[in-house]
Amino acid sequence: MSSEAIIFKPRPSFKDAELAREANHRIANHLMQLAGLVQIQIVNLERKPASADPHTLLREVVSKIASLSQLHRHLAERPEEDQIELGDFLIQSGASIVSLLSLSDRIRVVYRLDTQCTVRASVAHSFGLMLGEIMMNAVKHAHPTGLPVVVTVSCRRCDGSLNVEIGDDGVGLPEGFDVENDGGTGFQILRALAKGANVDLSIESDSLGLSFCMTMREQHSKN
Question: What CATH number is associated with residue 165?
Fold first, then answer.
């Protein structure tokens, strides 16, 4: 007499199904945002094909994918939470970009981060992408002689706002540069990311370096 093993597979609970749907929704939204940023690069490449370096373009895409990967690793570890510690996320995103692109001899990142800078996942994603754009810009332009660049990242809450500042120790912007309108693809992407995340972006430049200051009101960072 033969016997067959009967395997009972528990059906997913309603809560598990809701978490899966939410995770898929987040991934889809973030991938669409990533696709939009790459499309900006494609448009600029079509306008000025002779000025484009394919290796640089691919590195910039890799930096965006690295930030997205770090975000969803965070979310996978805490599927029921939407709040992310921004400081930890920026550290891991920056380290991932440096490692994937083998930039350890080109850039050093210094972090000055307050605790309890928690933000929504979508906000963390925007800041991670902006960090990647600024790091890549610093590697390309901060030191024309090829010296390694030091990038400083700070995050703090002050007067009801979340303030993130990312700066380098390079030569700054060219004389006459209009921070509101000038710049290449990287600056266009930074402005688009800031606008989409309700972040006030200001850019400061002098002979000691270039600094990107991003301010988000409390209701936008947590609601």
Answer: 3.30.565.10
7 in any annotated domain: no
How far does CA 27 lie from the centroid of its chain? 15
State CA 25 to chain mean position distance: 19
Question: Distance (Å, rounded) from C-alpha 28 to C-alpha 13?
Answer: 23
The answer on pLDDT for 149 being more than 80 is yes
Q: Which tens digits make up the pLDDT trace of 13-65? A: 545 555 456 555 566 666 776 777 777 777 767 777 666 676 777 777 778 77
Here the tokens at position 13 are: 């609970």
Pairing of strands 118-120, 83-85: antiparallel
3 CB burial (10 A radius; 0-12, 13-18, 19+)? exposed
Q: Does 154 reside within a domain?
A: yes
Residue 147 neighbours by CB distance under 10 Å: 11
In a domain, 3, yes or no: no
Number of domains in the chain: 1
Structural domain for 215, as ranges: 14-222
15-29, 33-47, 85-99, 162-176: range with lowest mean pLDDT: 15-29
Residue 157 lies in a domain: yes
